[in-house]
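Lecture 7 notes: from sequence to structure.
We start with the chain below.
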Amino acid sequence: QVPLVESGGGSVQAGGSLRLSCATSPLHFSLYSLGWFRQAPGRGREEVTYIHRDGQTWYRDSVKGRFTISKGNANYTLYLQMNSLTPEDTAMYYCAARRASFGSFDYFGQGTQVTVSS
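Predicted structure tokens for the same chain:
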């Protein structure tokens, strides 16, 4: 089991910003690829962004230039800075981890809700 504890969700108006955090263990922080998924009501879970162990990142097109994934090495925490939020970003956001460099993510946190109003 991989400990993944999200925080930082909330309600903001369109154009606002939020920063999500995901705390994990030192072992998993160092050896696993980490990412963020989201699931809006009535929709499937979708991959938002991830960061490899070597620091390489990937973003889905709809968040490029607005979202930034990063790792806080001092406290083994994954972050997601979200700027210029729109109502379409409203979803439950999940932190995720995988041992392999590629492929599906195997572990998910409990999620944190993000609600953007127009």
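Points to note: The mean pLDDT is 96. Helices lie at 26-31.
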